[in-house]
Structures are given as structure tokens and as C-alpha cells.
Amino acid sequence: MQRICAGSLHSKDSHFHFKMTDYFSIKQLLFEELLVQCLPGNNASCIMEQFSLWASFALYLVFLSIMLATILGNSFVIVSICHFKQLHSPTNVLILSLALVDLLMGVIVMPFSATRTVHGCWFYGDTFCQIHTSFELFLTTLSIFHLICIAVDRHEAICNPLHYSREITMSVAVMMVCVSWALAAVYAYGVIYSKANMAGLEDISKSLCLGGCFVFFNPLWGMLSSAFCFFFPCTVMVCLYTKIFIVAEQHVRKIGDKNKWFVKKSECKAAKTLSIVLGAFIFCWIPLFTISITEPLTGFSTPPIITEVLHWSAYFNSACNPIIYALFYPSFIKCFHCIITLKIFSSNSSNMNLTVK
């Protein structure tokens, strides 16, 4: 570090000026020494986040808790539906696939996002950044498609109860799952790998620092992605559930003619529970999808910390669904208890009666 000899000057003003210059030079050099680069020795490197040890530990603890809740909770749902024969139904086929989506979010997406959030750096290379981004978009889109299928399933069960068992069979449910996975994959990987979302943003991509994982959507794809993959489907699902509850209320009022109007109480309760799942999804994801619309229009001015908070708010939704099932599905509570107490390994446990009186 260079020093400036202020004593060699005779003017008081010059003496003061050089002392101040010396102070700011020293301060700037010290500040630069404190900064840690994501790619050491590269002048174009991004700067690593400087959290204290305790702050980093607290963040990792929070993220680890969300990941464990996501992985364990959805694993319980998957094992329950696969093992217990009483849960083998078209609706639960869709719930099983949705739980698999949430499980993959906890296993593949969240761990790498956690290190990015804490350190402000992407340590896994540009290729894996693209894979991680496309997989995150794929799972998000897939969750929405599953919720649409579930809403259609509940609509048929409540609004057309006499034809439901004939129209919504196990094979139909499996087909809905396969189509959802295929369409979501085509959309997510098509957009990211074709770089359609980056069209017109070449100047921004060239000015980015190295060692980060950045994804931008231009105004066109920002609006299209949010409108057609979130806001429009959610509007349709809200309308479907609104109709479901109106029809269910009519069934209750006309319960006298049982042959025409009777609907199982369990079907109505399932519709209520799954509407809560939809509400949780909308609550967790709407801030992030709103940002994807406004960001291109505001010059991508949202602070990175805000973006990371919104991402983890969205990730938290994957941990919510098993909690909702446990709170509102007594049969799932019984399944979870059997798994935890290892009764699932007893003979003939798959035929266990899960009905709660």
C-alpha cells in the first residue's frame, strides 16, 4: 500500500487535501481486499456475498429444514399411495405424480440454489446452470399442469358423479400424468435451450459478471410465460373450484333425491383439500411470476436478495402439500403413522383399512 507524505507540503489546504486523499485511497484498497471474488484472479468475476459465520449458518439451517420437510413429506406421500391399496384411485395417481415433482424440487433444485443464495456465486459451471434453470422451470410448469388435471378430476367427481367412474379411470389418470410431463418438458427445455427468452437481451448478457447463474426473460417471454403458465391456468382452476363448490352446495340442498343428487361426502372433502393445495401454490408462486413480468419493464432493477427470497418462498410450496394432506386427509395421517412406526413392513399391511370413523 502506497503512502503519501503530507509533511513535505507547506500549504495547509494542500496538507489537508493530501491527507484526505490518503484516507480515501487506504479505505478503497482495504475495501477491495475484503471483497472475495467468485472466480479469484478474474477482473470480470462476480463478488461473493459477505455474510457473517452465524448468518450463513442460520441461512443454511433454514434451507436445510425446507429441503428435509420437502423430501421426507413427499416421500411419505409417495410410499403411502404406492403401498396402501385403498389409496389406489385416479385422484391419488395425480397426487402421487405431484408429490414426485415436489420431491425432485427438494433433491435436485434446492441444494444448489441454497449455495447460490448464501454465497452469491454459482460454483457448478455454465452448463449445469442451464440444466438447473431448465429443470426448475420444468418442475414449476409441471406442478401447474398437475393442478389443472386435479381440478378437472374434482370437477368431474362433483359435477358429473354418475359418469365419473366411467370417464376418469386409472388409465385416464396415468395418461393425464404422461401428457403433463411431456408438455412441461417440451416447453421448459425448448425455451431455455433455444434461448428464446434471451432474444433482444444480448447487451445485458455480455455485461454480466462471471461466476453467477443468471436467467432473464425478455418482455415478450416474461409476459407469455407468466400469463399462459400461471395466471391463465390459475384463473381457470379457480373458476372450476368455484363451480365445484356451488354444485356441491346444490347437492346438499337437494339431498332428498339421492339417486340424482347424492355425492359422497369424501368427494367434497377431497375437493376442499385440493383447493387449499391450489391456494397455497398461488400464494407461494404469484410474487415470483409477477416479478418475471415487471423485471423486463424496469430494466431488471430488482435487488438480487429480493429475487432469492421470492425463489425460496416459491420453493417452500413443495414442502406445504404433504402438510396439507396430513392436516385434512385422516387417511394420510394413518399412513404416515404406519410408516413411522414401521407397521408398513408387517404382513398384509397394504390391505389395511384407512377409513377413519
Automatic annotation (TrEMBL):
Transmembrane residue ranges: 57-81, 93-114, 134-152, 172-192, 224-248, 269-293, 323-345
Subcellular localization: Cell membrane
Domain of life: Eukaryota
Its membrane topology: Multi-pass membrane protein
Cross-referenced Gene3D superfamilies: Rhodopsin 7-helix transmembrane proteins
A GO MF term: trace-amine receptor activity
Keywords, ordered alphabetically: Cell membrane, Disulfide bond, G-protein coupled receptor, Glycoprotein, Membrane, Receptor, Transducer, Transmembrane, Transmembrane helix
CDD domains in the record: 7tmA_TAARs
Occurrences of domain G-protein coupled receptors family 1 profile (ranges): 73-325
PROSITE patterns: G_PROTEIN_RECEP_F1_2
InterPro entries: GPCR_Rhodpsn, GPCR_Rhodpsn_7TM, TAAR, TAAR_fam
A GO cellular component annotation in the UniProt record: plasma membrane
Transmembrane helix listed as a keyword: yes
Identification of the protein by name: G-protein coupled receptors family 1 profile domain-containing protein
The species this protein was found in: Sparus aurata (Gilthead sea bream)
